Amino acid sequence: MAAEARDRQFLDPAVVARLGTLELKARTVVEGFISGLHRSPFKGFSVEFAEYRQYIPGDDLSMIDWKVYARSDRHFIKKFEEETNLHCQLLVDVSGSMSYGSRGISKFEYAACLAASLGYLMHRQRDAVGLTAFSDHIVDALPSSTRPGHLRNLLIALDRIQVGSRTDVAKPLHQIAEAMTKRGMVVLISDLLDDPDAVVRGLKHFQYRGSDVLVFHILDPDEIEFPFDRATRFEDLETGDEVVAVPGAVRDYYLKQMGGLIDRYRRELGAAGIDYQLLNTSEPLEMALLAYLSTRSRTA
Amino acid sequence: MSFLSPLFLVAAAAAAVPILLHLLRRHAEQRVRFAAVALLKGAPVEHTARRRLRELLLLALRVGALVLLALAFARPFVRAASPASARLTVVAIDTSLSMSAPGSVARARQLAGDAIRAAPAGNDVAVVAFAGRADVIVRPTPDRGAATSATQTVTPGFGSTKYAAGLAAAGGLFAWRSGSIVVVTDLQASGWDAGDRASVPEAVHVLVGDVGAPPGNLAVEALRADGDRVVASIRNSGDRARDAHTRLTVDGRAAGESTVTVAARASADAVFANVRAAGVAIATVDDAGGIPGDNGRYALTGGNEAARSLVITTSGNLDRDAWYVRHAIAGLRGSAAAELGGWTDEALARYGTVLLLSTRGLGRRGREKLAAYANAGGSVLIAAGPDVDGDVVADVLGSGAPLEMKTANGDPERVAPQDSPKAAPQSSLSLAPADVRHPIFRSFGAEVASLGLVRFRSVAHVSGRSCQTIARFTSGDAAVLDCAAGNGRAIVVASDLDNRWNDFPVRASFLPFLDQSVRYLSSHQSRGTEYLVDEVPAGVAGVPGVAMVGSRRVVVNVDPRESDVDRLSAADFQASITRLKHVAAQDVRADVADEEHRQHLWQYLLAAMIAALLAEGVVAGRMV
After folding, report:
1. pLDDT below 70 — which residues of chain B?
2. Do the chains contact at A228 and B37, CB–CB below 8 Å?
């Protein structure tokens, strides 16, 4: 019940998707998310929270808050700004399969909102954030930066991206990993409808390059529940292949296959130390932000 | 391949329905553009290509089933293999008696040969000879020489002309071919009988090869014994009066000669008096230039016991069972029905007429005796009174003359008195002749109305396909029937003759009615000793002369109509052919129906349709 009550405070992704611009969407999500954090178990990660700690010999003296010393006669170090300098790269899958959506928002729209929200949040935390959109190749890339206008560029880039062709997650992952010069954090937003072995190998490549990896596995509720009830001709969004099936006859098989895919990602990525978060496009985006902050806290 | 009911082929258009459904609803299932199709590919589903094949197979099976159903209802059949699709020319040569006139047959052979030679190249030819019946003497063949040779050997016989028989035989050779029939004939008007049918396909043209009119002709058209007189009727069909010299012989001995003058297109009697000898009388008229076959006629004279009649009653005592009949006709003999089985055929055959007034006690042998008597030409008068059983009568008259006697309430099993509801207010019915020209009523003349005075209190319902209703009750039901019974005749009165169901016996009209009925039947019995050439029983040669039918001696004569040389015009002949062609089309359709019935291809088509539906069910069942 508590979880449901909490969820109801978050914005419905479909509602967010109907908002005007990505910036507005990101701000709406993040500001609402942050305002809710005061009652959340993740209290302390907000960039608005100023941390004080007792002076420890060796600390930089310029960091001592002398006003506090004047009032309390104690030396405290004031951490009023984020002191970390995280470089985060958002990898957004824009292959054809991401265009599927059944509840008023497609997986790509959800992924774009999520990337924008993450970018907005990171920008507020003064983390350097970059963007790479890929399908079977890199479609667009924006290096990570903390410059004031960078967030706008990122959002514009996201807004301009069109859902593209076929999926080949591994190939662009390896390309991006090879191109990264700084260690940091990589956030992959994809439906991961590809060869799991190749995907995992690509993500491990980032780990090899010294980056932490967070994977958001975006799936539509239809892909998770397979709610179809009458004979259906399924056409593949990327290949155009058609399969005619009576859902009642194949539902168990499909759910088993999908469950197996998710379990495999969860298991193999977990074993590799990669954070994996399954996201249903009907779930609030804030859940993804919480997952990010959880990973971020470990990274920091 | 042809069809008996081709209109059903229109129903094959229904095959378009599954095609349209297939085209319109080929994507009837919802279509979803889905991302995780790869995960479905291993599922036990049918992929598009294979499904499309199955759909096409299903479509073919459904369309095929509908088409097969339509074909089955159209009743297809394969026309009998024809030796060729070539057209056919049939030469039908008249070989009736009239063609034996001098010069006629030679002219006929010439015309027949000409017709064969004139047949279009590539046509098959056939030759039919016809008179009272027709014989195919050369079946369809491309060999014109054989056909021509056959025409040169035809000779006229003694039969009468029946165009319908010749056309039917000729038309039957065509099957589904087209072509023409050339009728080589003297166009004798008597060759068409009312009600004749001929199977001439509509695609066949009928042409006439006119042999020409026969010359003037003298013929003995009738010869009858009247007491000790023998009367020969001489017919002159020529355009001028002629003296006819006629000779009579009895059993080969000259019995007299007579010369009479016969006006043009008229008849005259040559009377031979004091002819007491019994035997075969032959009257011959001298006619050198006419038709030779009708110059003589045969008759049996003397020893004729046909005037005697046998009355069958319950007890055989005519004073008790048939008092009125007994006193109406002299010389009757009575017999109990139960005793008839002990009679010999010969003994029964001596009676010209049998009056069946009761069937009580008439056993199986007695019925067989009566049936044999009727088959041999004997005549029977049946009074359907209270003592007559309809089943027994049916046995007596035989299966060839189905006579149904029943009460008005529909009980066909038994003849019983029936008080007509219609007559209830008046309490009785009367009768009126339906055919005053019938020999029984002809002698009544103006007094025929006296029959209307007879009051019938009870009547039986009588009917029969081979019967003519010659008198009716005022209720409209048949009162007196004249029926064919075997080779003889039967008069059936729908009430009794013993003053039990009616007052007929006490009416003045009873005596002449009964007398004329017995005379009529007796005369037919005497005719039973005479046959026309075309009507001889089996085993008797169809030539004029004397023959034996069982134990009876009979004479065979030519049809007197054949002596009538009145001719049809070609237009009249063609007009009749047109009428026949219409009827012939029905016969052709009947032949087609028979052909279809023999082949019954529809059954195989129906079986194929069922197989298609079963296959459809199997294929459809395997589709998700």
Report:
1. 25-28, 44-49, 51, 79-85, 176, 193-199, 226-227, 302-307, 398-403, 406-427, 524-528, 550-552, 578-591, 622-624
2. no
Please report residues of B whose CB lies closer than 8 A to that of A100: 33-35
Integer-rounded Cα radius of gyration of chain A: 21
Give the three-state DSSP class for A32: helix
- Nearest CA to CA, how far is B612 from chain A (Å)? 25
* The three-state (H, E, C) secondary structure of B513-529, written as one string: HHHHHHHHHHHHHHHCC
Q: Does A230 touch chain B (CB under 8 A)?
A: yes
Contact B45/A243, CB-based, under 8 Å?
yes
Contacts 24+ apart (CB under 8 A), B44-47: B44/A249, B44/A250, B44/A253, B45/A243, B45/A244, B45/A245, B45/A246, B45/A249, B45/A250, B45/B624, B46/A244, B46/A245, B46/B623, B46/B624, B47/A242, B47/A243, B47/A244
pLDDT category at A246 given cuts 50, 70, 90 is: confident
Q: Which residue has the tokens 């978050």?
A: A10
The model's pTM: 0.43
Strand order in the sheet with B266-272: B218-226, B229-236, B266-272
Closest CA to B213 of B146, B289, B287, B296: B289
Exposure of B434 in the CB half-sphere (CA atoms within 13 A): 15
Residues 261 to 300 of A: which have CB under 8 A from any B CB?
261
Residues A242, A236: Cα–Cα separation, whole Å: 6
Residue B450 per-residue DSSP state: G
Interface check for A231 against chain B (CB to CB < 8 A): the answer is: yes
Cα B166 from Cα B133, distance rounded (Å): 7
Domain ranges (residues) in chain B: 2-80+607-622, 88-214+566-594, 218-303+556-563, 309-527
Angle (nearest 5°) at CA B586 between B582 and B587? 110
Name the region of A215 (left: φ>0; alpha: ψ -120 to 50; beta: rest): beta
Q: Which tokens sit at B236? A: 């002159």
Cα(B113)–Cα(B107) distance, integer angstroms: 10
With beta carbons under 8 A apart, name residues in chain A contacting B39. Answer: 254, 257-258, 261
Q: How close A43 gets to chain B, by Cα (Å)?
A: 38
* Contact status of A228 with chain B (Cβ, < 8 Å): yes
Question: Whole-angstrom Cα distance, residue B160 to residue A20?
Answer: 113
Fold observed for domain B218-303+556-563: Immunoglobulin-like (2.60.40)
Mean of pLDDT over chain A: 78
The CATH number fitting domain B88-214+566-594, selected from 3.40.50.300, 3.40.50.1970, 3.40.190.10, 3.40.50.410: 3.40.50.410
Which pLDDT band holds residue A268 (cuts at 50, 70, 90)?
Answer: very high
Optimal mutation site among A229, A233, A255, A281, interface B, most CBs of chain B within 10 A: A233
pLDDT tens readout for residues A29-81:
666 666 555 443 333 343 444 567 778 887 778 778 788 788 888 888 766 54
Kindly report the number of other CB atoms within 10 A of residue B47's CB atom: 14
User: And the tokens for A200?
Assistant: 């995992």
pLDDT above 80: residue A279: yes
Q: Please, are residues A48 and A124 in contact by the beta-carbon 8 Å criterion?
A: no
Residue A12 pLDDT: 62
| Inter-chain residue contact B31 with A233, CB threshold 8 Å | yes
Contacts of B362 by beta carbon, 8 Å cutoff, 6+ apart: B312, B337, B338, B340, B370, B392
Q: Can you tell me whether residue B610 is helix, strand or coil?
A: helix
- Name the closest residue on chain B to residue A191, using Cα atoms: B35
* Chain A: residue whose CA lies nearest to B31: A233
CATH of the domain at A182: 3.40.50.410
CB B461 within 8 A of CB B481: no
